[in-house]
Amino acid sequence: MRVTMVSTQEAPEVDMTGKRVRNASPKENSRFLSVGAVAKIFGVSAQTVYRSIHDGQIAVVHFRGRMVIPAAVVDKLEQDALDQASIEESSNEAAS
User: Fold this and answer.
1) Dihedral Cα 8, 14, 20, 24, nearest 10 deg
2) Which of 16, 20, 32, 81 is most buried, with most CB under 10 Å away?
3) Domain ranges of the chain
4) pLDDT at 3
5) What's the CATH class of domain 27-95?
6) Are 40 and 27 spatial neighbours (Cβ–Cβ below 8 Å)?
């Protein structure tokens, strides 16, 4: 169970023991994500995300010197991966 502390200042989320917890899904509240957040979502390094950006696999928005990734792009990457896995699973079943 997660408990959110409420105050006039931004407070970190804490669990029942009072330890800080990180937001498990940074996409929930953001239209744009940092490279680090996208890396966490996919379980890869930030450098891997930067390489994917450089290779044209991930679209970015440049905002005042910062590179951000639209959440819709991440959603599409996830959906494409699921669709590809479904196609591969179907073709494996047909070959059996």
Assistant:
1) -100
2) 32
3) 27-95
4) 46
5) mainly alpha
6) no
The two tokens of residue 20 are 């800080």
Amino acid at 75: D
Name the 3-class secondary structure at 23: coil
* Amino acid sitting at position 4: T
First to last CA, the chain: 44
Q: How much is the CA Rg of the chain, to the nearest whole Å?
A: 18
Find tokens 């905002």 and name the residue: 63
pLDDT score of 53 more than 60: yes
DSSP structural state of residue 83: H
SS3 readout for 49-71: HHHHHHCCCCCCEEECCEEEEEH
Nearest to 71 by CA among 47, 48, 38: 38
Nearest Cα neighbor of 52 from 71, 27, 32, 69 is 69
